[in-house]
Design goal:
Length: 191
Amino acid sequence: GGCLREQLAFYSEKFFDGRTLEIDYRRLKGGHSKVFYYDALPTRDYGEADEDYFKRVEGPEKALEAIKSLNHFHVYGGDVKRRKKRGYEQKKVDVKIAVDMLSHTFQGNMHNATLLTNDLDFKPLLDALVQNGMNISLMYVPSKTSPDLISSADVRSSITPYMFTSWIRAESPLNVPKSQSRSLVRSAKKQ
């Protein structure tokens, strides 16, 4: 969830004047039979009033509930901690992803898995899964992902601006025309 949100904010600022973009999670699901979505709600800041905290997490909480309501989607959470110099960071999410992917592999519940991430910390996980016979696809943002992580997957799919805009909700205030998506691709290749 964090990786997806970060990229959504990036494209919103870079190409759409900061307008609010919403993901259509059914489109994101594509041909996958199940989606395991991992994210974390922020924890309360030190001294933060109940009212302020509940107001701050209301939007993210509703978004996770909407994802949970979709068929074949399963949402799992962790925590978000505030670090003085680094801001908010997700905790426990990466470990939960690793445990779940390894468990499903060892139990034979799946034969193919796709992971959407830019985080090099997942390289040992992908190596272990591949060595244990799992077919691993990695969806990643090229400019933010280590070649070491990319090479550890069986199938590699870079998230292009065109691909990303295909996941934007048609009902949102912004429906990206195919011609604009192509210009996004050209613009991204120049970076």
